[in-house]
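Subgroup meeting minutes
Present: P.N., E.W., G.H.
Scribe: E.W.

1. P.N. recapped why we're keeping a running log of single-chain structure predictions: easier to compare across weeks, and new members can see raw inputs and outputs side by side.
2. G.H. added today's entry (107 aa).
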Amino acid sequence: MRDATYFLDSILGNETELTILEHTTDTPGYTELIFAFFDLLGLSFSPHIRDVGTQQLYRIKRQLPDADLKPLFKGWINCQLIIDYWDEMLRVAGSLRLCRKNQSMVK
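Output recorded in log:
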């Protein structure tokens, strides 16, 4: 379990007059899934990732990126997986937005 899920709970449960639009965290505070939920909820997620060059980066198209970037990309996004689970992701994002379920409880 990473810190990211708890940060999202805190942001969505914010009861101050301030609107939080962006969250910055260090390496333990991010997961790939959190990027998706921040985007679905209209929030910006800007983690400072240690050793970013060793992280798994993905691309949608199978065409190779610029030669300088090629070593950073190690995999492709499975678009069918996103399509298959899109309704479920929207349901969870809606539940989170309405504070009916905490992100840290979502497995």
